Structures
1.
Amino acid sequence: MTHKHEEPFAVPITPDWEAFRDCIMRKGTPDRVHHIELYLDGEVQDAICRRYHLLDGLDSEDPAFPLERMIRAQRFLGYDYVRQGVDALEMPLHRAITEDTAEFQRSGGRAYVDEVKGPITTWEEFEQYPWPNIDEVTTHALEWYEHNLPDDMCVVGSGGFAHFAEYLTWLMGYETLCYALYDQRDLVAAIADRLMDIYVPMLERILQFDRVKIVWGSDDMGFKTGPMIGPDDLREFVLPGHKKMAEMSHQAGCPYILHACGNLFTIYEDLIEDVGIDGKHSFEDTIEDVRELKPTYGQRIALLGGIDVDFLCRTSESAIRQRVRDTLDICMPGGGYCLGTGNSVANYIPLNHYLAMVDEGRKYRVRGA
């Protein structure tokens, strides 16, 4: 499938989803480093597949081609899982499109959600909005993985659900939401309730599949110095949704991990003690260095990723390798750490920089292992 002289990694890895889950649940120092990413941009996946001939022998016309492609890419990179949720769920938003200037340019441009005004700013717009019919949602990809995913890999239930804070800001527009929290709180509550009505049955569908062993909610809630809306508003309109997602996951025997960007120190205790998250993902050096959290929150939840995206973009491969080794020295003991970027593998991260991070993790020798 690949040409050995082009293999970028010094150490082979065989997936082990059970050890991956045990690491997240902090069941002792793992035998090797486990890797995690919320996602790799499609352009990055394409570049890796082309460079290392990962698609040799696959039929691009086969309906299962994207799923076969995902398995090959994930195994090649050393991940223990694939991410999958229900099939596409449409919730129209107001977007602006600009040219993409990244190294692996996105042909359709880069999209940004309108921060001022979304599709729902009044009760009339709420009633007219084309809310998705959950009864029409399909699970073709999950069904395929249930029967075709290699036994040493699992499905991380993720994608398209648990965006409670994000869809409040996207559907209303961030500026409109801020005003509405003062003068239209009933409309904000109605949107939050409708999101719960959508996401609960979505997660029920996902958890019906035995290959789903971990649930990963994704919901950016903050920026550099604080949350996007006040902590009390998050507790009223956002955190109850994640608490329900965590309860459902735990009842199914799955850890619930959360991707959430921004400075969330004002609600960390809520996330751990009330919501019940098992792990936190998304760390930015200007907010919180994951290495500094290991002695504190890292004793209570898993810390996931944390190799800062800006650092990966701007520094050298040798500096990346040193940062990875230092992070692993601090964060690996006792488990509860998986190596990855601080957010995701964006198409503007130099590909060799990302591969250097992965390779250094694969080479790392766990003390005592």
2.
Amino acid sequence: MLATESLAQGTQRLQTRRNEPGSSPGTLFVPADAQATRLFLLRYGPDVCEEQQVTDVGELVAPSQDGVVTWLDVRGLRDERQLSAITRFFDIHPLAAADVVNAPQRAKTESYGSHLLLIAHMAQLLVGPDNEPELHMEQVGLVLGHGWVVTFQESSADGDVLEPVRQRLRQGRGKIRNAGADYLAYALLDAVVDGYYPALEGVGAYLEDLEIQTLERPIPQTGRQIHALKRTLLLLRRGIWPEREALSSLLRDVDDDGELNPLLGANTRIYLRDVYDHVVQVVDMIETYREFAASLMDVYLSSVNNRMNEVVKVLTIISTIFLPLSFIAGVYGMNFDPAASPWNMPELKWAYGYPFAIGLMLAVSIGMLIAFRHFGWIGRPSKWPKVERDS
């Protein structure tokens, strides 16, 4: 089960960080909480796959045109000097560089002639300090050029959703080593979108647990958990919803002459349509879970009200039973003198007066309980007249 605090992780990301008003376009804004920058270079082709961690941009080799694809994976956005050097090395437009560094941005696609900018958001379920899953949202900026791809991630930690793509490159599985940089960009986007499925599976299991808890034993913490879950689903929706428009724009991207962008091959566009279908599926799942969470909050409030009504009903029944008992006790508590008149409570001198009074109280209480049960107010529903239908 996901913890309440776990589902609330990342809700502070609803507030987007921005540059100072009036700053120059393309200014890199590195937040104070940015993680250390690590550079990983992977060059591959049909018969080669070289992987290394570089410490400086000066170690990079210019992308070749002999079928070898260069993938530079930038993890962490703290080192502004390195980030600026990377944008100069690959001739990335300043506005594109600002979008990948000034995170988070809305998922989108931008064409800058010699390269494409793709902004996406990946979702992961990570194991927290208490061995509880935590939802982690992170922006991924992808720049595609001729024979090269540069990805920018906010986190510098290992173990992201792009790891399966790295494994395919290392092992040479599939057609990825025989394809170009555009196919690598597709594979990375597909991995980002597919990463939503495990996260949504965890959210779905958590919803089922909350449903059982809401129906069987609703407590104040249940309401807070449902509210935190709704915020988490809102965060997931904010990350994936604009991706549909971004992919649709990418598939329709044309140059000034009306021709399809040459950075994306015809075969790659077919695969990108499959990614678009996955995005639609993820959006549908999120919308379904959001409706489920909203209805679950209504069920929770109804369960709390029903439980309160049951408590009030029990207290009312107890008060109703004690009402005639108080009347009987009050009658026999009156200070009439039986010696003054034979009509002044003669049973006070009766040998069985006290057992009679107690028995009368018990009989009234039992009779009222039987009547309440007969009318279905306690114990079981009332018996409604059977309706005979014509055959």
